[in-house]
Inverse folding.
């Protein structure tokens, strides 16, 4: 790796920016197909109801309407599948009820798809939907975990008694119980992880087309993982073979997990296009996005930490209840289990850890991955609990963490993971320095002089990214592999096309991956283009989520480049009349070792495509594909520090400083990495201080628009201090770990710990997210009696 | 149905619209200018911001007929040929965009600010952008880009 001005480690300006900055991005809603019709999805306004006949005659007769379909029409079509089978403690499989794309017999949440109207214009389709008459009988709803688990609670599904989907566990319960018996101190905590609505700024959209001449379907859709959508939609829902179903995810305006799932609308649209033989386009209104994009988080937990007299952690016991919503979305079931329970060692040597998770169906929007997915929930609980332990034992918050850090690697945790590498002291030290932790008391005094309460909070955390390997996740219930593909095509004149199965929806893959390839091959950065997001162009792919793109997708590309170089050496050896073993490749040249005799990559590529003088038995062409299945997760880690100033009169929390100190592994493009951290921090701060999805008891969504769901805006946030201490991942050749979710995982507990630190002098010892001014003010009033 | 005529990115454009047609619909669907985005239906995200007679306006909150006779600039009309506008260049230089969906609105809002204030403070930028949501960047680099872009514009677009 040579590391030139555009190579690995350089803050190269992004290739994708020119089109985005000039209005030439091509997002799904920007695409129009000849002869297209417009679909409007009629959604349930009731959270739970029996539905009888859906009367569509009036709508069908409305101006411009081509068709109206309801549940009965799609009855023969498969339901929307889920991607991960979880087994309960007793070994029984989770309850997995059917999820018809268009509701059949019952609706189960406000937003459930009831019918599609297809018309000449979007306005006509919307107007006609008002004429549909649905026979329905409202049923009592359960809109929260508490309501779902109550005795005699209404049942979301008859086949799920008590609304329980599964009751799962990880870790050694007996060993953990024994640790508590031997403990000098036990500290416990109850926490709620607030439900969030993802809110990528681009609403979901799709256009489906069917070509009767070829029998081929094409679906343009706002997806983070087009091949996964093809697999689920093709194999499970519509019964279409892969070669007759093309999925294109063009420019996508943010995902954050909400564009992973295969959604009912994708199936409805594709099926409808087949029925009508015309393209059908649908764009989700924001108001409908609130009640149909999968939501995130929504846990209630209670946890206990066992410590010895010196503050050494002996055992951790976590009981969590979580809300899955009304149906099982694609990764819904693994997020609160295999992306959550296995995180509870954190960066600490706690020898015994046990976590149990009971998941419930409710009459709310399905819950799935949201930036961090399970890991923010685990980190929040653990880091709140560690702070509470420090406070109750009268120990320093930093020292209690440091005293329990893991320092020897590889480290096998008691909850399945094996950390390969890390240096938690280094990121902690860096954070303390960058945040001027030691100077805090002076700042606190300065705030106090102005009548304000200042607090500082810390969280030290690890995360597990690039979930893998396939054989392990398969044994745990995953219904897909978690490898990635990469293809590298060197063209005859030496320019390069790179094909990746990951998908970029803001992460800048077109730049980062081009840096890797241009650096390795010694070709100009501008001579490398990256192609993604089209199942007709890319061999296969699992898409982008879980901070996997560089560690898994980047490695696949790396391996494909190595294969290209290997083949190129054979061609060069032939041209140079040397033996292959003597050929070295560096800076774009194949050289006979110890001589100045060389051939450029361009010459070798041209020879590969014009093989007049060519090694015998070698195939022409210079294009290679690699599939990479990682040996392990990657383990980014870090320390986040937040500093707040609270106005005791109003309860308003002013976030004055945020410091990130992170080990994300090898950094290819520091500019892009910083941007990923900024975005994640803002998302985490949103959760900590502003965002909360609220349902009324009857299942009506109270926070159903930007008028009452608070999104972080520019004036709500400070600029961030970003710092790195890098250790390399040991099991991928790039040494990459992942960065996309770090901020939303690490920062929420730091913020809440800071708020509690500020309020502690007033006798406040607990605070829930989001710490709104109302909640803080109430806590102050209560504490002061 | 009413006919509207307006200058869009320097060219005179006309069309027959319904009286309820929004300016953003006219731009995206009648003129094919898909650089202007729609991110919400309650006038809160700012993805749809364009300039109408030199001032930033949420084109989802303006009827096409209200813009009759106006001079409209969309993101497609900001660059000078292949030379990016200084504000576009600043967004690129400072990584003020990730997925790009909020970007057209952000850039056009920022140009309006810069026209009024060639040296805005961080606080002024953050306050000015209260009508523009971004989920990707955490605003950090947008703020840097707007400050740099405003300086590069030197008090005029
Ligand atoms: S589209 Fe959201 S403010 Fe105009
Ligand atoms: S860059 Fe994606 S919303 Fe702003």
């Amino acid at each position: 790796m040579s590391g030139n001005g555009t190579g690995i480690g350089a803050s190269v300006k992004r290739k994708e920016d020119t089109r985005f900055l000039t209005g030439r991005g091509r997002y799904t809603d920007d695409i129009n197909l000849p002869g297209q019709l417009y679909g409007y999805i009629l959604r349930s306004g009731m959270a739970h109801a029996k539905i009888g006949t859906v009367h569509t005659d009036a709508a069908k007769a409305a101006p411009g309407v081509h068709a109206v379909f309801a549940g009965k029409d799609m009855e023969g079509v498969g339901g929307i599948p889920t991607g991960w089978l979880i087994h309960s403690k007793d070994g029984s499989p989770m309850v997995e009820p059917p999820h018809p794309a268009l509701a059949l017999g019952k609706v189960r949440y406000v937003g459930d798809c009831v019918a599609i109207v297809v018309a000449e214009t979007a306005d006509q389709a919307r107007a006609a939907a008002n004429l549909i008459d649905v026979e329905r009988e409202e049923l009592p709803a359960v809109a929260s975990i508490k309501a779902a688990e109550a005795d005699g609670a209404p049942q979301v599904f008859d086949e799920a008694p008590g609304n329980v989907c599964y009751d799962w566990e990880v870790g050694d319960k007996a060993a953990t119980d024994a640790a508590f018996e031997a403990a000098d101190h036990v500290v416990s905590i109850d926490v709620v992880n607030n439900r969030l609505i993802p809110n990528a700024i681009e609403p979901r959209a799709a256009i489906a087309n069917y070509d009767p001449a070829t029998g081929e379907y094409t679906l343009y859709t706002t997806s983070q993982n087009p091949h996964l959508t093809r697999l689920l939609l093709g194999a499970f829902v519509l019964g279409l073979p892969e070669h007759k179903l093309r999925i294109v995810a063009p420019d996508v305006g943010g995902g954050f997990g909400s564009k992973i799932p295969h959604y009912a609308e994708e199936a409805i649209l594709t099926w409808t296009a087949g029925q009508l033989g015309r393209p059908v386009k649908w764009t989700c209104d924001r108001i409908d996005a609130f009640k149909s994009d999968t939501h995130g988080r929504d846990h209630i937990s209670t946890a206990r930490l066992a410590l010895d007299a010196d503050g050494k952690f002996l055992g951790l016991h976590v009981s969590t209840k979580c809300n899955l919503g009304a149906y099982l979305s694609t990764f819904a079931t693994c997020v609160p289990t295999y992306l959550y329970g296995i995180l509870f060692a954190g960066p600490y040597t706690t020898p015994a850890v046990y976590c149990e998770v009971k998941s419930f169906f409710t009459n709310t929007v399905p819950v799935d991955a949201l930036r961090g997915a399970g890991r923010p929930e685990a980190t929040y609980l653990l880091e709140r609990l560690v702070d509470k332990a420090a406070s109750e034992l009268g120990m320093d918050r930093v020292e209690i963490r440091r005293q329990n850090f893991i320092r020897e690697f590889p480290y096998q945790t008691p909850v399945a993971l094996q950390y390969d590498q890390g240096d938690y002291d280094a990121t902690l030290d860096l954070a303390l320095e960058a945040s001027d932790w030691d100077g805090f008391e002076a700042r606190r005094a300065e705030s106090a002089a102005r009548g304000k309460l200042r607090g500082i909070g810390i969280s030290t955390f690890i995360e597990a990214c690039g979930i893998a390997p396939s054989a392990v996740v398969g044994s745990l219930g995953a219904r897909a592999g978690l490898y990635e593909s990469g293809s590298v095509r060197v063209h005859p004149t030496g320019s390069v096309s790179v094909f990746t199965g990951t998908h970029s929806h803001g992460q800048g893959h077109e730049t980062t991956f081009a840096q890797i390839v241009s650096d390795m091959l010694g070709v100009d950065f501008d001579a490398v283009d990256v192609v993604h997001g089209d199942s007709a162009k890319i061999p296969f792919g699992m898409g982008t989520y879980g901070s996997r793109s560089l560690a898994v997708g980047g490695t696949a590309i790396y391996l494909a480049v190595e294969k290209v170089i290997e083949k190129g050496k054979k061609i060069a050896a032939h041209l140079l009349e040397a033996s292959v073993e003597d050929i070295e490749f560096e800076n774009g040249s194949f050289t006979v070792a110890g001589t100045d005799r060389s051939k450029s990559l361009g010459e070798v590529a041209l020879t590969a495509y014009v093989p007049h003088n060519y090694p015998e038995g070698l195939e022409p062409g210079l294009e290679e594909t690699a599939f990479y299945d990682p040996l392990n997760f990657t383990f980014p880690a870090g320390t986040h520090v937040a500093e707040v100033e609270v106005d005791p009169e109003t309860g308003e929390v002013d976030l004055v400083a945020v410091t990130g100190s992170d080990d994300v592994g090898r950094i290819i493009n520091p500019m892009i990495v910083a941007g990923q951290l900024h975005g994640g921090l803002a998302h985490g701060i949103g959760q900590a201080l502003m965002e909360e999805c609220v349902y009324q008891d009857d299942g009506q969504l109270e926070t159903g628009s930007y008028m009452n769901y608070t999104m972080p805006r520019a004036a709500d946030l400070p600029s961030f201090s970003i710092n790195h201490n890098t250790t390399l991942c040991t099991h991928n050749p790039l040494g990459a770990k992942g960065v996309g979710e770090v901020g939303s995982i690490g920062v929420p507990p730091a913020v809440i710990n800071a708020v509690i630190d500020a309020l502690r002098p007033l006798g406040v010892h607990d605070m829930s997210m989001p710490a709104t001014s109302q909640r803080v003010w109430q806590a102050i009033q209560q504490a002061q009696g | 149905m009413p006919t509207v005529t307006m200058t869009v990115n320097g060219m005179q454009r006309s069309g027959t619209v319904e009286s309820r047609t929004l300016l953003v619909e006219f731009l995206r669907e009648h003129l094919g200018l898909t650089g202007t985005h729609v991110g919400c239906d309650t006038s809160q995200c700012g993805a749809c911001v364009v300039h109408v007679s030199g001032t930033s306006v949420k084109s989802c909150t303006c009827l096409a007929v209200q813009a009759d006779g106006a001079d409209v600039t969309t993101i497609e009309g900001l660059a000078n040929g292949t030379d990016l506008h200084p504000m576009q260049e600043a967004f690129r230089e400072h990584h003020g965009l990730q997925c790009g969906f909020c970007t057209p609105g952000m850039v056009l809002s920022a140009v309006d600010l810069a026209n009024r204030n060639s040296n805005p403070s961080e606080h002024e930028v953050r306050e000015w952008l209260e009508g523009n949501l971004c989920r990707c960047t955490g605003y950090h680099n947008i703020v840097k880009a707007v400050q740099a872009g405003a300086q590069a514009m030197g008090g005029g677009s």
The first strand of chain B starts at residue 3 and ends at 8. Strands of chain B lie at 3-8, 11-16, 49-52, 55-58, 71-73. Helices of chain B lie at 23-30, 86-93, 103-116, 122-128, 140-153. Residues 10 and 100 of chain B are 24 Å apart (CA to CA).
